[in-house]
Design a protein that fits this description.
The chain has about 190 residues and is mainly α. The protein is built from seven helices and four strands. The protein has a two-stranded antiparallel sheet. The longest helix has 19 residues, at about 110-130.
Length: about 190
C-alpha cells in the first residue's frame, strides 16, 4: 500500500465505522465473517478472513470511530500511529521512476491488521495533507454516522451522501410541499 493513497484509506476507514449498529439503528452491517469478507472484497483488500477477525474488526471499528469523534491533532497522530505500528514493513519504492513510501503487511497479518493499517494511513494522511477539521459527524439529523472528508473543497456534510443526503433532501422536499398553499400542492 502506498502511504500517499490516504484518500482511499480514509474512505475505507469511513466505510468501516459506518457499518456499526448505532449508525444503522441497531443493525450491524458486519454481523458475520461472510459480511466481513464481502467488505474486504468491496474495498479490494485481499487478506482472507480468519476466526477471530470479526471480533477484532469490531474492536478496531470502535477505536477508529473514537479517533474521528475526537479529532485533536496530537490524539489523531498518536492513535493512528498506534494503528499502523508493527503491522508491516515501510520501504521506499521506486519502480516507476517516482519514489514513494509504501508499506507491506507481514505475511501472517490478519484482516483486522490490514484494516488497522489502512485506517491509520488514512487518518495520518488527512491530518498531514488536509486538516483535523475534516473529521466530522454526519449532518443528517437522524444519523449517528461519522466520516473523514477528503473532498477537494472540504464541504462534505453526510457520512453516506447517497443515503443520508438523499434522506435529508426528501424530508426537505416533503416539508416544503406540506407547507405550500393547497393551490400550489395540487398544481405540482
Amino acid at each position: 500500500m502506498a502511504l500517499d493513497d490516504y484518500v482511499w484509506a480514509a474512505g475505507v476507514a469511513t466505510d468501516l465505522i459506518n457499518t456499526a449498529p448505532e449508525v444503522w439503528h441497531g443493525e450491524d452491517k458486519l454481523p458475520d465473517l461472510a459480511s466481513l469478507a464481502a467488505f474486504a472484497e468491496l474495498h479490494s483488500i485481499s487478506v482472507k478472513t480468519r476466526p477471530g477477525d470479526l471480533r477484532a474488526v469490531h474492536r478496531l471499528r470502535v477505536t477508529v470511530r473514537d479517533l474521528i469523534d475526537h479529532p485533536a491533532q496530537a490524539r489523531l497522530i498518536t492513535g493512528a500511529t498506534a494503528l499502523t505500528s508493527s503491522i508491516g514493513d515501510v520501504t521506499l519504492d521506486a519502480p516507476s521512476g517516482r519514489s514513494r513510501w509504501t508499506v507491506s503487511l507481514r505475511p501472517d497479518a490478519t484482516l483486522a491488521d490490514a484494516l488497522s493499517l489502512i485506517s491509520g494511513v488514512g487518518i495520518l494522511g488527512v491530518v498531514q495533507s488536509l486538516d483535523v477539521a475534516r473529521f466530522r459527524s454526519c449532518g443528517a439529523p437522524t444519523c449517528q454516522g461519522a466520516f473523514i472528508d477528503t473532498t477537494r473543497p472540504g464541504r462534505r456534510r453526510y457520512c453516506m451522501p447517497g443515503l443520508c443526503g438523499n434522506r435529508v433532501n426528501v424530508a426537505n422536499h416533503r416539508a416544503r410541499k406540506a407547507s405550500a398553499p393547497a393551490s400550489e400542492r395540487h398544481n405540482a
